[in-house]
Amino acid sequence: MSVRHPAVAGMFYPADPDELRRAVRHAFADAVQPPDDAPAPKALIVPHAGYPYSGAVAASAYLRLLPARDTIHKVVLLGPSHRVHLYGLAAPVDNLFDTPLGMVLVDVDLRAAIRHLPGVLIDDLPHLHEHSLEVQLPFLQTVLDEFTLLPLSVGDATTEQVTTVLEAVWGGPETIVVISTDLSHYHRYDEARRLDARTAAEIAARNAGAIEDLDACGARPLRGMLQVAAQRGMGVETIDLRNSGDTAGDRDRVVGYGAFAIA
Questions:
Q1: Which one, of 112, 72, 81, 57, lies nearest residue 255 by Cα?
Q2: Domain membership of residue 17 as a residue range
Q3: Cα distance between the two ends of the chain
Q4: Residues in a beta bridge with 4
Q5: Is the dihedral of CA 76, 82, 84, 88 positive or negative?
Q6: Closest to 256 measured CA to CA, from 177, 179, 199
Q7: What's the 3-state SS for the chain?
Q8: What is the pLDDT of residues 125-164, one digit of tens each?
Q9: Residue 62 is part of a domain; what is its CATH number?
Q10: Residues ≥6 apart with Cβ < 8 Å to 190
């Protein structure tokens, strides 16, 4: 079967498997620990920067999956296309995604279920160098047992296109949806905190229409997820909200990161 090989191993996260496991453990150690009564989420919103920058924030969300690790065996993963301009959402032709921790099998049944929906493409090119999906896989490989993956690189997709895809693959407790997005980009620290607090409040309120493209680089999949959550009467919890000035960068030009759980 054709394989999508790692594009950002050695840059966004370690390429050596042992070093990568240590980096993931370090991220979990710096994460916000969940309360004992935290419900198992149906969806997560997580950042996708290099692990020193956003790894602990992402880990704060992924910890919520541990109680359901024996139940979840399908992951629907949506993130923005940074390098390839496309209209709609692209699923890969490749049937395997490789990481330093091993192979992840693409869910061919889920891919078949959406391939004829409006805006859906089957195309490897948007996935070839895309980091927003790749950086999530080692976390998923750590917190879950075996799972299949539907990776979707999202370009200029409408909210309706995203919601239609999500509804088609929604499934039951065996399926988790992960939305990969960072928040504000390249503001000074205090301004970024203000902007991201406003965005986090709109996310928690499930106010899809209030999320502008400059509020989050994954605004398009994010808006679709929030619309589904609102339609289904689900709640959104803000788990963690930091930026690169809090983690591994200076405070002159920061990038915002948030972790949210939807249940």
A1: 57
A2: 3-262
A3: 35
A4: 97
A5: positive
A6: 199
A7: CCEECCCCECCCECCCHHHHHHHHHHHHHCCCCCCCCCCCCCEEEECCCCHHHHHHHHHHHHHHHHHHCCCCCEEEEEEECCCCCCCCEEECCCCEEEECCEEEEECHHHHHHHCCCCCEEECCHHHHCCHHHHCCHHHHHHHCCCCEEEEEEECCCCHHHHHHHHHHCCCCCCEEEEEECCCCEEECHHHHHHHHHHHHHHHHCCCHHHCCCCCCCCHHHHHHHHHHHHHCCCCEEEEEEEEHHHHCCCCCCEEEEEEEEEC
A8: 999 999 999 999 999 999 999 999 999 999 999 999 999 9
A9: 3.40.830.10
A10: none
Does residue 47 contact residue 218 with C-beta atoms inside 8 Å?
no
Is residue 137 within 8 Å of residue 104, measured between CB atoms?
A: yes
Nearest partner of 160 among 80, 86, 221, 113, judged by Cα: 221
Quickly tell me which residue has 């989420």 as its tokens: 41
Q: Tell me how many domains the chain contains.
A: 1
CA nearest 142: which of 27, 10, 2?
A: 27
Q: What is the mean pLDDT of each run of 10 residues along the chain (263 residues)?
A: 96 98 98 94 98 98 97 98 97 98 98 98 98 98 97 98 98 98 98 98 98 98 98 98 96 98 98
- Does the predicted model carry a pTM greater than 0.85? yes
